[in-house]
């Protein structure tokens, strides 16, 4: 299906063959067999990821240090009911504290073991949600398979960061928005108070009552969490000052341009460790940082323009818009840490749970970008930091692929939803999926 065509309406009830409410024994057996196969593959791939995390596989100690060092240090401060605002690496909204305190739920394990165990559990919940979404009338198993098979491409990194937990909130929000917009909005608000970007999942909600309900619910949940953490913790907004001091990280799009310039001798700067990351210092770095911010603003304005101009809505549109929005904000960021790929793979997987999605080729480009990301970090990270030609090529290839995928995502979303002729598109209303139509009526 081309991006310019509108998917036909496929009611949930009509998409399945007529039945009397009970699956046939043969179909039930095939379903159980498929689930057992998925479970076995999940166990095998996650066991491999855990093995890479625990053993010194391609500098896994560099991967583990965030939990055993940074997160544990934050935990030691958070248990005193204070945010670690004096630590410049603390750059997260206040509800992130709940993630770093969560290992207390498993007191019989060490902090490292408990954090990883909870992260693996969240990974399994994401997969379960994607499998459930596949059972919808317009559903597809492709989303669950994408998450199942591509997360291990990032090696041990997903289990050594807290981005799987944040991705779970974004995935849950998108899956709930379809029939329960209030709940989806609440979850998006919670996600925003953990790491901001899950709020972008609301960008593509169908016009009308469902959007109002989701946005109001998100705002109320954000306000409630801010109030709770302001009461419980000292200096709950201290992260704002630390975040503003970030520079241009090595792995960012602007960073790859500086790396190429430094490799060719056209730029005299250097790489240094600051604000908890390897960043560039030298001439033109502030200009690159401002350019990244300007691109983010331009990207946001384009997304708003899409929202105003879009007329053709399907059940996949909110999912596709969320992926496109997060890709725009990721690629234009001053920071593209390797764990950011967890977000993009999770959102791409949600898109693929719908047969109406326009983002299928983009999702597989992200899978390729995940492979390059692991080659950049941790496999050949030393080459990247030493600015070798090989390290420069890997980073530029990864970022170039992400940039291309982002532009293609936006183009496909625009063509599928914005009528070519102004004023056209209302006639496409009957082609909108019934669930989206019901959602906009509330």
From TrEMBL:
Topology relative to the membrane: Multi-pass membrane protein
Biased amino acid composition, Low complexity: 425-442
Principal location class: membrane
Membrane-spanning segments: 34-54, 111-131, 143-162, 182-203, 215-233, 287-306, 362-382, 388-407
Domain of life: Bacteria
Presence of keyword Transmembrane helix: yes
UniProt keyword list: Cell membrane, Membrane, Transferase, Transmembrane, Transmembrane helix
Name of the molecule in the record: Membrane protein
Organism ancestry: Bacteria, Bacillati, Actinomycetota, Actinomycetes, Kitasatosporales
């Amino acid at each position: 299906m081309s991006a310019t065509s509108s998917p036909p309406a496929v009611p949930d009830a009509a998409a399945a063959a007529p039945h009397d409410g009970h699956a046939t024994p043969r179909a039930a057996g095939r379903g159980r067999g498929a689930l057992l196969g998925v479970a076995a593959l999940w166990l095998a791939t996650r066991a491999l990821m855990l093995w890479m995390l625990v053993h010194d596989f391609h500098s896994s100690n560099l991967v583990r240090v965030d939990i055993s060092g940074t997160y544990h240090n934050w935990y030691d401060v958070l248990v005193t009911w204070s945010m670690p605002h004096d630590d410049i690496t603390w750059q997260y909204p206040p509800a992130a504290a709940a993630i770093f305190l969560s290992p207390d739920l498993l007191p019989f394990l060490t902090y490292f073991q408990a954090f990883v165990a909870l992260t693996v559990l969240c990974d399994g919940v994401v997969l379960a949600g994607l499998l459930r979404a596949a059972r919808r009338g317009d559903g597809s198993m492709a989303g669950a398979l994408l998450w199942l098979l591509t997360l291990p491409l990032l090696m041990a990194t997903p289990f050594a960061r807290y981005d799987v937990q944040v991705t779970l909130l974004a995935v849950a929000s998108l899956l709930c928005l379809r029939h329960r917009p209030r709940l989806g909005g609440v979850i998006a608000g919670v996600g925003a108070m953990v790491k901001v970007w899950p709020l972008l999942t609301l960008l593509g909600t169908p016009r009308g009552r469902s959007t109002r309900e989701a946005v109001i619910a998100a705002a109320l949940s954000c306000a409630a969490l801010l109030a709770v953490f302001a009461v419980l913790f000292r200096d709950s907004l201290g992260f704002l000052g630390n975040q503003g001091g970030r520079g241009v990280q090595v792995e960012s799009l602007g960073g790859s341009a500086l790396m190429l310039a430094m490799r060719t001798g056209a730029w005299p700067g250097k790489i240094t460790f600051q604000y908890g990351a390897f960043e560039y210092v030298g001439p033109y770095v502030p200009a690159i940082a401002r350019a990244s911010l300007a691109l983010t603003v331009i990207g946001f304005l384009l997304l708003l323009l899409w929202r105003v101009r879009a007329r053709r809505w399907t059940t996949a549109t909110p999912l596709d818009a969320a992926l496109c929005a997060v890709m725009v904000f990721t690629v234009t960021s001053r920071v593209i840490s390797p764990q950011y790929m967890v977000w993009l793979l999770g959102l791409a997987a949600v898109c693929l749970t719908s047969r109406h999605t326009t983002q299928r080729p983009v999702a597989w480009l992200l899978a390729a970008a995940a492979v390059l990301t692991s080659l950049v970090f941790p496999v050949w990270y030393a080459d990247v930091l030493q600015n070798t030609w090989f390290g420069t090529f890997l980073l530029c290839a990864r970022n170039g692929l992400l940039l291309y995928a982002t532009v293609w995502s936006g183009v496909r979303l625009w063509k599928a939803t914005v009528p070519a002729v102004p004023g056209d598109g209302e006639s496409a209303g009957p082609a909108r999926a019934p669930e989206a139509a019901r959602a906009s009526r509330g």
